[in-house]
Predict the 3D structure of the following.
Amino acid sequence: MTHLLVSAGTRSAAQAGLVAAEAGGNAVDALVAAVAASWVCEPGMTALGSAGIALVRPAGEQPVLIDGLTAMPGLGGHVGDPPGGHIITMPYGPGVQTGVGPGSVAVPGGLAAIDMLHRQWGALSWAEVLSPAINLAREGFPYPSVSAAYLPLSGKPIYDLTEGSKAIWRRGDGTPRAAGDTTQLPDLATNLERIAVEGAELFYAGSLGEKIGNWIIEHGGACGPEDFAAYRAEQRKPVHCDDHGWSISTCDTIGGSALLELLAGFSEVPAGDCDESAKLVRVMAAALDRRDDTLRRASSSTTHICAVDENGNACSMTTSTGYGSGVVAPGTGIMMNNMLGELELLPDGPNVLKLGERLPTNMTPMIAMKEDSVVALGAAGADRIAPSMAQTWRGIATGHLPAAQAVNGPRFHVRTTSEGPVLDYEPGFDPTGVDMPNNPFETPHMFFGGVQVAMRTSDRTLQGGGDSRRGGIALSTHA
């Protein structure tokens, strides 16, 4: 058994990673198993029809970026009716508008990304790493509290659009599932079993992708079989910076650019400075203002998973289906993303993109290295991803906090409104000296993102943190 640690958005997903470790898998195997499990046991947060982006650091080597982001469809000549899907409003926060239905589906890349990770750095067989997810879908998993809170808001306008998606969030009698309900997804289990035997190609160039793509086209979407067959995950170099003696690697996404600017600005504010809070707020306000000038804020449901093992292998991966399209082709159990309908991502509509072009994202996995220490870090939480990561990292790098304490420390966020910036903050954050309207939260809240951390220290000790705001947990093989 490999000694490793997995940090995930649910206990079920983290335990799937430990199953891989017990079979002799490394951190890559654990991450792939946990990600696949999250596509089963985190409804509304992610799914097999997702976008995915990962950083992997093989022991003793430099990190590598794996791009499984969604892509612009239309290679079969279809544009969607209407492009980007039908606009709905759901009662999430102040009210969120997004495009849903077949026209909102972009070409999914999450499965291609974990397939590439497994092929290049995994130690177990493909069937072994998918086995925990299959068991969860077939035998049942406890419905997570974060899904029970989110899906009643998005269920009627989105998840009731097809019978397959309705089954994800409703019981047999039609009532919404509650936290802790044992939930079985038999169609998803069957198709995961097929993918375990036939490979990811079944979903892209095989009969499963053809079935889903044809259904989408027949119902007015643009993402057809030609788009599935043409999709490829890409291996690229990450972007880098140095911070407090650590070498930081992240991705060249909208969120990654914001993270680098936040890290640079935060590093100039000494820990314990008499005006520390106000200075950090000013740094965040400037960084997010520049980000929003480049692209409006991305706002979608995501999940993040990190894994690290005793040998120094480390992985950090974020996946997302956006708000969900409501599209589950009959008999598949696979929820598809609504990335073409994300108005925050594509304020001018999806047709500004070239066919096959990757969609923009705030997803921002990160790996930090210093001598023999390595940290995998990332977050869910839309436009709060980079800010929540920067604050957590500051606790580790400057406060020398244990990962769990850094993850669950008080957070703040500078929110853009039509009247100007507003400071949102949790109990424990001191807003003294901040020159903008304040909005204190009474308790820690999932609004401030869901950060996961997995760390191997220089003495080969493993530690991690799962964000309690979103039900996160870190589990170790020696725990």
In short: The radius of gyration is 21 Å. Residues 276-294 form the longest helix (19 residues).
